[in-house]
Write a structure and sequence with these properties.
Elements lengths: L2 H9 L2 E5 L4 E3 L9 E12 L9 E5 L4 E2 L2 H7 L13 E12 L1
Antiparallel strand pairs: 1-6, 2-6, 3-4, 3-5, 3-6
């Protein structure tokens, strides 16, 4: 990635603080921003595994990101104007400092 592209991305990052119990993303909702975690921990989980009783959960923390569905959508040359749906719910476990893109 060249410096101009990187500068363009950095200009669009917006800080966000999340408090315990707050939902940052809900499974099935349109994804309109990516989240890059600086501090704190989140629970990322899904119930949509295609079978009854499916549940998958893991914690994410500093250095991780979520809502990568948006990146996949944006890089597809045939993407539509309809935003992708989130495949996971992301809930704040400990106070979170992050950047939205």
């Amino acid at each position: 990635m060249n410096k101009t592209m990187l500068d363009c991305i950095c200009e669009r990052l917006k800080p966000v603080l999340g408090t315990k119990g707050m939902f940052l993303v809900r499974e099935g909702d349109p994804v309109n921003q990516m989240l890059f975690i600086i501090r704190g921990h989140l629970d990322s989980y899904t119930k949509n595994g295609g079978r009854t009783g499916f549940f998958d959960s893991y914690w994410i923390g500093p250095g991780y990101f979520c809502s990568e569905e948006l990146l996949t959508w944006a890089l597809d040359p045939r993407h539509s104007i309809i935003l992708p749906s989130s495949t996971r719910t992301v809930k704040v476990i400990t106070e979170v400092e992050a950047l939205f893109l």
